[in-house]
Hints:
The protein is an alpha+beta fold. It is built from one helix and three strands.
Amino acid sequence: xxxxxxxxxxxxxxxxxxxxxxxxxxxxxxxxxxxxxxxxxxxxxxxxxxxxxxxxxxxxxxxxxxxxxx
Length: 70
């Protein structure tokens, strides 16, 4: 009897460039301490707006999945 176990953790990535970059930031940081990341799901996008109405900060709440090692 065999199978894989996958663990999912939630992270928040931040970027001054874009929401997509915020996701990439979160995944790249996670890769520094987690092995075997197999997927990412974006849960929420948020942003910071300056007084002139420009978006100046991007945040992405994400879940990353990785296999639990035996």
